[in-house]
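Changelog-adjacent note: as of this version, every example in the card shows the full chain rather than a window. The one below runs 308 residues end to end.
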Amino acid sequence: MRRTALYSRSTPPAPPAGMAAQAGDPEPASPAPATPPRPSRTRLVWHHPGALWGAIVALALALALSQGPWRAPVARQLTQKDIDAAVLHTALHKVLPSQAARAAATVAPSVVRVEGTTEGKKSRKGPTELDRGIGTGVVIIDNGTILTNLHVVQGAEHITVTFFDGTESPAGIVNIMPENDLAVLRALKIPDDLLAATMRSTGDLAEGDEVVAIGFPFGIGPSVSSGVVSGLGRGFRSPEGGQLMKNLIQFDAAANPGNSGGPLVTMDGQVVGIVTAILNPTPARTFLGIGFAVPIENAAAGAGQVPF
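Full-length structure tokens:
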């Protein structure tokens, strides 16, 4: 049985010329209708010279626009005048932190609240009363070594320091300097990220230099006040103990009871002194515009630090 060829639709070839069809041969199939020829693609023919010249002109114009002075402008480089104008605009329209604010923020993580407590006599009407003294200290070594005033902790049976992050710790006295009314404390527990303040020599300190005092006046704080160095090499006799202190820094940044032991800081956030006293000829013990600080060189020496 013959199999039909697949995919084949070709027409059988015609018999050679001169040969007659034999009887019994099948009649040749009628020729397939002629396939109409495909139309050829139409070519674009310019029938008028003006159209050709118009296209040339349009092409030339487009090329000129892409390369001539009409192309997109290149970004202009900034000049110093542009930068100065931008800085001036920012200064006039944006409120920036003051120098005092930046200085206080720099030293704030090193400032501590110092509290000394002493048990009082037992009262018939109640439990034992406690005498509390509030002052300020500043961390000078990141192992928990703190400078403060001696009169803040003198006679205290318990000393507690509170760090910037709220961590509280008992502390002990490791050294005292009565001639400068200073004490060196060591905290038993410290924060993991405790930062020590940066100390700066007073050798180039001048009258009129701006300073910041940070502390806990009347237990409120940490509080910040700013002023200037009013004088150098001053002497002051403490009304409590009668101790004459020399070579003090005089300043007019507000300080009150509770500021004692806190840092006196320059505008670069570096400690130049330890606030130790205020001058007030009245019994009020409030600030009248004259405060004194021990130069940091003297204070740091008591902690075994001689950085300058």
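Structural remarks: Residues 1-11, 18-24 have pLDDT under 50 and may be disordered.
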